[in-house]
Amino acid sequence: MGTLDGMTKTTSSETQGGGRRTASSNPSDPTDTVDRSLERRAVLRTRHAQSLTRLMEERADLRGVHALADFVDDAVRWTA
Known about the structure:
Radius of gyration: 16 Å
Distance between the termini: 30 Å
Structural class: mainly alpha
Oligomer: single chain
Number of strands: 2
Helix content: 55-70%
Strand order of the largest sheet: 1-2
Strand content: 5-15%
């Protein structure tokens, strides 16, 4: 996929792999599936927070447009 200002575009297989299983996964072990789902969510959450923070740094005119975006940007800055 292409890039946009150094950010890689997320493919649908990275974000929508919830129902798919690989050959190495054990279908009889639901804990493994849950653990992988939680790990994938954490990675995506981190990636999106980083991208949002980078966007808010580059585009100060976006502050105040969406309250949740402002909240996430502020929260990331306070934890850094």
